[in-house]
């Protein structure tokens, strides 16, 4: 087993371009599609045609007391041009007694921001009424109750959910490519006769398969861990510290892909056929499973049913639950069990087909 395992790693170290290529692609796609800027704050262009510069600055300072939003001072002409060119979805106009949102297109962030601004304006109006009732007497505000809320606001969550969705989807998508293309070595060994010589060698079949599969499994796990580490350390994406559930889910997902690879290797006979099949399988699985867009937005019942058959769907669900909700392993039982069942199903059929192919070639 360990001899086979070491030989696979030696082969990978001699030709590491494939894995490095897909690792780089996953980083590039996550960065470009997710818009990683090291911050999850939402920029809100703010202007006023009634307030003075000092009053506008004071209001913006108050609005920026929460890190979720970044209210930026600007002027009407810049806002109008940005809205007209679709560079920003909305903007905020502040007046002495009210405010107004200019909305060019509907976004999920609009409603929470409106609620946030309305709350500040309501508090200011209440304070102003108290001042007037007390003869404009100066008084201090004191906090009598402080509530610590661990959950994120709706806007912050939606912003982070988008980044995490892209991160998990692209990472798992390119991991499928890496694992399946590396498993092409098994097809080459079958065509060259090396696989049959291994089967009839003193090494047991169990050791041969374990040595091969353990190598591919570790490569997939390593790519996911390295992708997450680079994005968190160097690109500022917050993945939390729920590492054990994340690792377990990722391990189960890679195991299902390795098992799927065994099934494909038992069906495909030549590397040329595999070069055609792998992009179809990987991209089709990613599209139907929700790696490119959320499954929830798909209205077709057939596609929604097919998405439940894709390992990548459950891998993404488990990773999102571990990262965003910080679920323990007990809360991630469903995606983990489904991935393990898929692994057993794919592996059982795949090994049976591999053995039949080996018997035919030996005859």
From TrEMBL:
Pfam family, one: ABC2_membrane_3
InterPro entries per record: ABC-2_transporter, ABC2_TM, ABC2_TM_bact-type
Domain ABC transmembrane type-2 positions: 128-357
UniProt membrane topology term: Multi-pass membrane protein
Annotated localization: Membrane
Annotated keywords: Membrane, Transmembrane, Transmembrane helix
Membrane-crossing residue ranges in chain numbering: 12-33, 164-187, 208-231, 243-264, 276-295, 336-354
Protein name from the UniProt record: ABC transmembrane type-2 domain-containing protein
């Amino acid at each position: 087993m360990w001899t086979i395992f070491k030989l696979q790693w030696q082969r990978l170290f001699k030709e590491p371009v494939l894995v490095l290529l897909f690792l780089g692609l996953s980083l590039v796609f996550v960065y470009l599609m997710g818009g990683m800027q090291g911050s999850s704050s939402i920029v809100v262009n703010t202007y006023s045609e009634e307030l003075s510069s000092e009053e506008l600055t004071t209001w913006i300072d108050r609005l920026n007391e929460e890190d979720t939003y970044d209210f930026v001072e600007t002027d009407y002409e810049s806002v109008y041009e940005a809205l007209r060119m679709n560079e920003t979805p909305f903007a905020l106009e502040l007046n002495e007694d009210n405010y107004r949102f200019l909305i060019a297109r509907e976004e999920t962030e609009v409603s929470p921001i409106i609620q946030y601004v309305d709350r500040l304006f309501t508090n200011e109006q209440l304070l102003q009424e108290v001042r007037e009732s007390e003869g404009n007497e100066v008084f201090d505000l004191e906090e009598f109750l402080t509530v610590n809320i661990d959950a994120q606001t709706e806007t912050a969550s939606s912003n982070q959910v988008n980044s995490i969705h892209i991160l998990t989807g692209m990472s798992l998508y390119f991991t499928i490519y890496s694992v399946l293309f590396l498993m092409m070595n098994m097809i080459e060994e079958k065509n060259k006769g090396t696989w049959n010589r291994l089967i009839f060698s003193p090494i047991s079949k169990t050791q041969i398969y374990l040595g091969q599969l353990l190598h591919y499994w570790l490569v997939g796990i390593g790519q996911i861990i390295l992708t997450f580490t680079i994005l968190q350390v160097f690109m500022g994406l917050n993945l939390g510290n729920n590492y054990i559930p994340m690792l377990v889910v990722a391990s189960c997902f890679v195991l299902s892909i390795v098992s799927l690879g065994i099934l494909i290797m038992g069906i495909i006979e030549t590397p040329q056929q595999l070069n055609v099949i792998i992009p179809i399988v990987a991209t089709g699985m990613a599209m139907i499973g929700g790696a490119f867009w959320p499954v929830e937005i798909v209205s077709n019942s057939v596609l929604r049913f097919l998405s439940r058959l894709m390992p990548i769907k459950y891998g993404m669900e488990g990773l999102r639950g571990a990262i965003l909700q910080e679920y323990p392993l007990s809360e991630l039982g469903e995606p983990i069990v489904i991935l393990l069942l898929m692994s057993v199903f794919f592996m059982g059929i795949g090994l049976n087909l591999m053995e039949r192919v080996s018997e035919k070639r030996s005859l």
